[in-house]
Specification:
mainly alpha, 2 domains, repressor, transcription regulation
């Protein structure tokens, strides 16, 4: 019988995410991940085979777990729209500086040039949009959104807003990212919010950078 694993694959993938934020996927080394995880590079090779294997495992794990912030938001917020805001803020919680976002965006090159990475990225994007649409559907049923709401189109607009806000915030550095994200989401939802909704929910604060 082999020795039991003292560090789970999930813990290693979390360490991989932290290392990517510092070095980006291109500058990442197995040694850097090993230091972050408190393991030897040989252990990473044994489990994942190579740096590419580790990055693919990281991408696959991200696609498989993107629903979790939405599920947790449902557990902690009775309002679907509050849950949506909280979920999107949670998704962006791994970014605290423009440099960290740059590290994460380095994956975009892999996503666009490598079909294996692109498949995971596409799955991640589709699942994210489906989760957003689910909360928007609940918000319509709860009367939090009114008017002629086309949920698929609005879900896409909110998803685009989420990604765009990350970029604008990294460029301008205007205030905390969580506040910018909530304001941008509220602005996207503003045409569908009831007129008697709280003022901050009807008029999202403008983003910096135009």
């Amino acid at each position: 019988m082999g020795r039991p694993r003292t560090t789970s694959d999930e813990a290693i993938l979390r360490a991989t995410g932290r290392a990517i934020a510092c070095h980006g996927p291109e500058g990442l080394t197995l040694a850097a991940v090993a230091r972050e995880a408190g393991l030897s590079p040989a252990t990473l090779v044994q489990r994942f085979g190579s740096k590419r294997g580790l990055l693919l495992a990281y991408a696959g794990h991200a696609a498989e777990t993107v629903h979790l912030p939405f599920e947790q938001a449902r557990e902690h917020h009775r309002s679907p729209l509050d849950g949506l805001r909280a979920a999107l803020v949670a998704l962006s919680a791994g970014v605290s500086t423009p440099e960290e976002l740059a590290g994460s965006l380095g994956f975009l090159r892999l996503d666009l040039t490598d079909p294996d990475f692109r498949a995971y990225a596409a799955g991640h994007a589709r699942r994210t949009r489906d989760e957003i649409a689910g909360l928007l559907t609940e918000a319509v049923a709860a009367g939090e959104l009114t008017g002629d709401v086309e949920v698929p189109r609005l879900a896409r607009a909110v998803q685009v807003t989420y990604n765009g806000t990350l970029i604008l915030w990294a460029l301008t550095g205007d205030g905390p990212l969580a506040a910018a994200m909530r304001a941008a989401v509220d602005e996207a939802l503003r045409p569908y919010l009831p007129r008697d909704a709280p003022a901050e929910n009807r008029t999202g604060a403008p983003l910096g950078g135009g």
